[in-house]
Amino acid sequence: MHCRDCILTEKKTISWPSWPQYGNDERKVVEKVIGSNQLFAADRVKEFEENFLIYTGTNFAKGVGNATQGLHLALASLDIGVGDEVIVTPYTFIASASSILMQNAVPVFCDCDPHTRALSAEKIAAHISDRTRAIVVVHMFGYPADMDPILELAQKHGLCVIEDASHAYGAEYKGRRCGGIGDIGVFSMHQRKSLSAGDGGVVTTNDPEINEKIYRLRSFGHKQLSYNYRMTEFAGALGLIQLGKLDSHNRVRQDNAELLDRLLEEVDGLGVIKPLGCATSVYYRVLLHFDPEKFNCSLGEFSSHVQESGVPLEMTWKLLHKHPHFNPEKVPARGLPWEWSMYDGVMKGKKYDSLSFPVIENLCDNHLLELSVHPPVSEKEIAFAVQVIASAAVKFSR
Fold first, then answer.
1. Which is it for the CA torsion 280, 286, 287, 290, positive or negative?
2. Which of 111, 172, 360, 368 lies in disulfide reach of 280, CB 3.0 to 4.6 Å?
3. How many CB atoms lie within 10 A of CB 335?
């Protein structure tokens, strides 16, 4: 198919397939859990954990109620707390950074690498202080970060690396699966995620001491303050089914991304963003790069026009340093750890919303678009999407 063959000559719309797509397999295991009268974490959760650690290539995996709990446990297991700093990207879901506040530690936001849209060793190095304890690396939309230089930097400074792999089930970096590369990995099983169980999460590690701490902290009753962060049998049972389908679902996403890339080759000013050459993306969403110099419209106007035809080509996420959690109108009862008198770190006397991250701000405001390519999205939907995008490109071309 050539670009000139893609142009729509009349207005058409499509109903984009939804995700997830639960069926008889999921219904049966849920009914089996109900029939067992055992809804609290038990055999299904244990079986899921055992299969998940094999999938990720890690030594340990612990199921939790959701990824926010998993991130909180990861930080708590490292004894991160008052006065400590944790470096994190502003380009992520709120939990990657708000979990740091849950330990009364200070989030230190860091700009992103222009090629990975994730943290890089070079960017991180400029933010390390005597108070830095950990780095939270997020593999956004299933595109792996460049991990080896980050791990080398972390080892040099005695820091722990937490991977937020919520979008990156099955994604690989130099043959290693995301979530099993750093000290701790955290995954989300929220309904929208690639491994969908309604809600749930997993914490992975290769360190037996960290694993033991997470095991103790996720259930009430231990000497150290602990939590009710357990996974349900429903999530364990659904997780097992979804884990068995994960590779085939990922292949659909990858095939759709490759097809989209090929069909957009002749659309000037817009193209699929690929992962690092040493990495494999699972395209939780496909990212596209928009060149504003080629069009006489804004990124938002282009996105809105395409969406009128039912193609969910969206602008990407808002950055967290502007979020109310870090810029509250009123100081919350728990206080703001970066404003405490005993704190003298890099955020002392600073306001989060006054920070500047030129690389990721420019990308989000002017260049990045995202498209869902989950199953059962097929060649039909991708071809239609390209028709709509190509038509928009002609309409708005300079």
1. positive
2. 172
3. 11
Tokens 């109903």, located at residue: 15
Nearest to 346 by CA among 107, 158, 104, 79: 107
* Spatial contact of 92 and 118, defined as CB atoms under 8 Å apart: no
Q: How far is CA 39 from CA 64, 188, 216, 234, 347, in A?
A: 14, 20, 20, 7, 44
CA–CA dist 203, 176 (Å, integer): 17
261/291 Cα distance (integer angstroms):
16
The class level of CATH for 24-241 reads: alpha beta
Strands (E), the chain: 60-64, 85-88, 106-109, 132-138, 160-164, 172-173, 176-177, 184-188, 201-205, 270-272, 279-280, 286-290, 314-315, 368-371
pLDDT 10s digit of each residue in the chain, 398 long?
Answer: 445 455 555 678 999 999 999 999 999 999 999 999 999 888 999 999 999 999 999 999 999 999 999 999 999 999 999 999 999 999 999 999 999 999 999 999 999 999 999 999 999 999 999 999 999 999 999 999 999 999 999 999 999 999 999 999 999 999 999 999 999 999 999 999 999 999 999 999 999 999 999 999 999 867 888 999 999 999 999 999 999 999 999 999 999 999 999 999 999 999 999 999 999 999 999 999 999 999 999 999 999 999 999 999 999 999 999 999 999 999 999 999 999 999 999 999 999 999 999 999 999 999 999 999 999 999 999 999 999 999 999 999 99
Return the residue matching tokens 């470096």.
87
CA separation (Å) from 3 to 114, 141, 263, 268, 377?
28, 27, 7, 9, 21
* DSSP conformational letter for 157: H
Q: Which residues pair with 176 in a beta bridge?
A: 173
The domain segmentation of the chain, as residue ranges, is: 24-241
Task: Decide if 360 contacts 90 (C-beta within 8 A).
Answer: yes
Name the strand (E) or helix (H) holding 387. Answer: helix 379-395
User: Does the pTM exceed 0.90?
Assistant: yes
Q: CA 118 to CA 112: how far, in whole Å?
A: 5
| DSSP state string for 238-303 | HHHHHHHHHHHHHHHHHHHHHHHHHHTTTSTTEEEPP--TTEE---SSEEEEE-GGGBSS-HHHHH
